[in-house]
Write a structure and sequence with these properties.
The protein is an alpha/beta fold. It contains 19 helices and 23 strands. 34% of the residues lie in helices and 22% in strands. α13 packs parallel to α15 and α15 packs parallel to α16.
Length: 537
């Protein structure tokens, strides 16, 4: 029976899997949920839509027992329940994949997953590792059970979260941006497993800002705005533009085609860069060569764990290289420059991890602005200039439409998309010559993504060179002028976007290219289009 027919049959004959009525939650200065109602049937895949800060994550945490509501009632399989803890949620049969990972860095994959299982299932670690291996292979989300979490890329950590839930005997699976760092093939494989789970009666609550995914997977959708339910729709019968309008307003335009340009004088040159992996599970970079010119965006695609993390460390200065002239910035060899020296030279960096690397969770936005903006006159003779620090944070908040309770708001109090806008805005407002940006719109809504993309294009048009490392091919084709892909630590050819297809870059991501024929930086400059062009992919 088709999933839609199955859902319709079950919705008529079954009571709700979970029903919420009047759920409210208030934090100081913020009403996160205001009398929210939600009803999910057995076997239903239900989407929860809304812009960043709309209250989606708060509602999910209430359903999973992480947060207690101030008011309202939850019914589970027709019975009123209280969910005071995640342990109680798992006991009921509720599993959740968080957008920000809840994993212990120093433990292995198996040890992390064992923490969420009953003692009888967790005791035999060898048997559990075998189950993890089987699940990872079956669902097409490969992960090594013996690897330590700190050695995993963001995408690999996401896979651990998904596998941890799949190993539990669950009747409701809550997924908060589960596909953010998966390739299209991995997403389709995941969707196959989710459809199978739903067909077996498991309900799924699916949060995603990728509206095409919601259309492909979900039976129904509820829309939140400013903590309140403002609408509902059938994603199978609604266009992405219609859903975006429900989420963030009627003026939101999707997929804006930005003109493609050719770069000017070279700003960053990477020549025959080699780097041995730092840990047994890392990736060795082999003979990387590329360049980025003034006023252009270079997109680098790749499946998680293929050298992106290592490349970002070498570009930012977190890892130094003593190979002479392999990394040149504005004509100078900077392989031995630390991060502060590179920033002083005009480089800015947006890491892939917002909390912990992009921002300190417990610190306010004003202090997080100071962390990288200190060269912009925020310190004088060793003393902090608090008024200027506050003004800088206020400027980022206003210019990038960051929803926050003032400049003193802790970074961890912001939604993922609003924190991402703050981090990117903080770097852009320093007018860098070179911006290195990893996964700039991971897990952000369509409105925030448009804001970030427009800011990157504006910075490019002011003459900055930009490197965007991302697993989102749609994003890279939308904003990049040239594009390449990393696979097993090797870089594919780098080509102008107008002459390249998604399928071609997808094949590069699997290693289908001849590394010996990759052009050197000077050759890459020559192959630029000579006039601005519209994307033709």
């Amino acid at each position: 029976m088709h999933n839609a027919e199955l859902f319709e049959t079950r919705s008529k004959s079954s009571s709700s899997r979970i029903r919420c009525q009047g759920i409210s939650k208030t934090y100081p200065g913020v009403v996160a949920n205001n009398a929210v109602d939600l009803d999910i049937q057995p076997g239903e895949i239900h989407a929860l839509l809304g812009e960043n800060g709309a209250g989606k994550s708060t509602l999910m945490k209430i359903l999973y027992g992480v947060t207690l509501p101030d008011a309202g009632q939850i019914w589970w399989n027709g019975q009123p329940v209280s969910i005071p803890s995640p342990a109680k949620a798992r006991e009921l049969g509720i599993g959740m994949v968080f957008q920000h990972f809840s994993l212990f860095e120093t433990l292995t994959v198996t040890e992390n997953i064992a923490l969420a299982l009953p003692p009888g299932e967790a005791r035999n670690r060898k048997h559990l590792a075998g189950r993890i291996q089987d699940i990872s292979i079956h669902y097409g989300i490969p992960v090594d059970p013996d690897r330590h979490i700190h050695s995993l890329s963001t995408g690999e950590r996401q896979r651990v979260e998904i596998i941890r839930c799949l190993l539990q005997n669950i009747n409701l699976l809550i997924l908060d941006e589960p596909t953010s760092v998966l390739t299209p093939l991995e997403v389709e494989k995941l969707f196959e497993s989710l459809r199978k789970l739903a067909a077996e009666g498991c309900s799924i609550l699916f949060i995603s800002h990728k509206l095409n995914e919601v259309q492909a997977l979900c039976h129904s959708a509820t829309v939140l705005r400013n903590g309140t339910v403002t609408g509902a729709c059938d994603p199978r019968m609604s266009s992405a533009q219609e859903m975006a309008s429900l989420m963030v307003g009627s003026h939101t335009e999707l997929g804006v085609p930005y003109p493609k340009v050719s770069g000017g004088e070279s700003v960053l040159e990477i020549s025959s860069l080699n780097a041995e992996r730092e840990d047994p599970f890392g990736t060795t970079l082999k003979n990387l060569s590329f360049c980025v010119g003034q006023g252009e965006i270079l997109g680098i695609a790749g499946v998680a764990g293929n050298g992106q993390k290592e490349l970002l460390k070498l570009l930012s200065g977190e890892r130094l290289t003593h190979q002479q002239d392999t990394i040149r910035f504005s004509g100078k060899s900077i392989g031995r420059f630390n991060p502060a020296a590179r920033r002083k030279a005009g480089m800015a960096v947006v890491p892939e991890e917002r909390l912990g690397r992009g921002a300190v969770p417990e610190m306010g936005l004003h202090d997080n602005g100071l962390l990288t903006g200190f060269l912009g006159g925020l310190i004088r003779r060793g003393f902090l200039r608090h008024k200027k620090i506050n003004r800088f944070a206020e400027q980022v908040i206003q210019q990038f439409s960051v929803k926050a309770h003032g400049v003193a708001a802790e970074a961890r109090s912001l939604s993922g998309g609003n924190l991402q806008k703050f981090i990117i805005g903080r770097e852009i407002l320093q007018d860098p010559k070179l911006l290195v940006c990893a996964s700039p719109t991971w897990g952000v809504d369509v409105g925030a993504a448009n804001t970030i993309h427009q800011a990157l294009i504006a910075l490019r048009d002011q003459g900055a060179a930009i490197v965007v490392i991302s697993e989102d091919l749609d994003e890279l084709f939308q904003i990049s002028d040239r594009i390449g892909a990393l696979c097993h630590g090797q870089l594919s050819p780098v080509r102008p976007v107008p002459g390249t297809t998604v399928e071609q870059v997808g094949s590069w991501m699997t290693g289908a290219f001849d590394a010996t024929s990759v052009p050197q930086p000077e050759e890459q400059i020559e192959e630029h289009p000579q006039e601005p062009q519209e994307a033709t992919h």
